[in-house]
Design a protein that fits this description.
Blueprint: E1 4-8, H1 13-24, E2 28-33, H2 36-46, E3 53-57, H3 63-77, E4 82-85, H4 101-129, E5 132-137, H5 151-171, E6 176-183, H6 200-203, H7 209-221, E7 230-233
Parallel strand pairs: 1-2, 1-4, 2-3, 4-5, 5-6, 6-7
């Protein structure tokens, strides 16, 4: 039986592309996201390829909701071998001069706290198995701050990079590896939240979600004794 995987943000963008890539490789995949309708569409796109799909609507900002999600995934798929934290958001009013407390908390909750809750929820499975992979979709904003990203997004992504390093520092003795992927601009629906969404010609020059999914697959498909700790990918 193939290994179970959990992908957050699976309703669109990179999360959807990763879920479809894993389904194509025969993984059993739990699709996690806030919106039932987008998860349903991802499941429809993957239905002919996946051995088993489970759509689990969940607001990962809520630690209790994540715990319930993990219990359902465990009951339906068994111990999880792979967690991909691909959920992410931003806000149009994102500069220090404009950022509201609500948007700040929403950004940190989705991009960082939610990833931490998911890691804590599935680490016991991986420790029991003596193996596991966690892939965090970060951003090149987790390498260098820029006004384009905004401070809350930058802070969340620097934190996610630190979480990845901490997993490798503490959990490698248990057979667990963590990979941080730092993409440049990707043509996803998140671009629509920019103060001035880029035009079609600019989007055409960006990475595609499928490009990042291939990076995830590289990290996952390496032998268990090898780990890609950090991977930076940008448009050419």
């Amino acid at each position: 039986m193939s290994n179970p995987a959990v992908v957050t943000g699976a309703g669109s963008g990179v999360g959807r592309a990763v879920a479809l890539r894993l389904a194509r490789e025969g993984w059993r995949v739990a699709l996690v996201g806030r919106h039932v309708e987008t998860l349903t569409e991802t499941a429809r796109l993957a239905a002919e390829q996946a051995q088993q799909l489970v759509s689990v609507p969940c607001d990962i900002r809520d630690a209790a909701a994540v715990a319930r999600m993990a219990e359902r995934v465990r009951a339906e798929l068994g111990d999880v071998a792979l967690l991909v934290n691909a959920a992410g958001t931003n806000a149009p009013r994102r500069s220090l001069a404009e950022l509201s407390l609500f948007d700040y908390q929403d950004l940190l909750g989705t991009n960082l706290h939610g990833a931490f809750y998911c890691v804590q929820a599935f680490l016991p499975d991986m420790r029991r198995r003596g193996t596991g992979t966690i892939v965090n979709i970060v951003s090149d904003a987790g390498k260098q701050a820029s006004p384009k990203a905004g401070p809350a997004y930058v802070m969340s992504k620097f934190g996610l990079a630190g979480l990845t390093q901490s997993i490798n520092a503490e959990e490698r003795a248990h057979g667990i590896r963590a990979c941080a992927i730092f993409p440049g601009d990707i043509d996803t629906p998140l671009l629509d939240k920019r103060p001035q969404p880029p035009p079609a010609e600019a989007r055409a020059r960006m990475l595609r979600p499928e490009d990042v999914a291939e990076c995830v697959w590289l990290c996952v498909s390496l032998p268990a004794h090898a780990v890609v700790e950090e991977l930076v990918i940008r448009p050419r």
